[in-house]
Amino acid sequence: MNLTGYAASSAVRKHAASTSKTAEFTVGITSAAEGSITLSLGSTITSDIKNGRYVYDVLLISNANIKSIAVEGMVLVRTGITS
């Protein structure tokens, strides 16, 4: 999908019906023509997230303000083993 003219956002929540966000991914459109994006969370944000399963989605917003969910899935947060 060509993402030229689109904006994107992404949030992590404990469950789909949750009204509060656990975290927000930084979304980068790396190649609009190819439809490539990257999601990232900084280490200070991830260190504050409690262990467990979470859900996320990626929301695309066209320049005509049409909103659609492009991707959704699960995030598993576990304490690091190697420091």
Beta-sheet strand percentage?
A: over 45%
Average per-residue pLDDT, rounded, comes to: 93
* Count of extended strands: 5
Radius of gyration, whole Å: 14 Å
Output the structural class.
Answer: mainly beta
Assign a percent range to the helix content.
under 10%
Order of helices and strands: EEEHEE
Structurally, the number of domains stands at 1
Low-confidence regions:
none
Number of helices, counting only DSSP H or I runs of 4 residues or more? 1
For this entry, give a set of tags.
83 residues, mainly beta, five-stranded antiparallel sheet, 1 helix, 5% helix
Characterize the structure shown:
The protein contains one helix and five strands. With 83 residues, it is mainly β. The protein has a five-stranded antiparallel β-sheet, with no helix packed on it. It is globular and about 40 Å long. The mean pLDDT is 93.
What can be said about this structure in brief?
By secondary structure, the chain is mostly beta strands. Helices cover 5% and strands 51% of the residues.
Please specify the SSE layout and strand pairing.
Layout: E1 7-13, E2 23-31, E3 36-40, H1 43-46, E4 52-61, E5 67-77
Antiparallel strand pairs: 1-2, 1-4, 2-3, 4-5
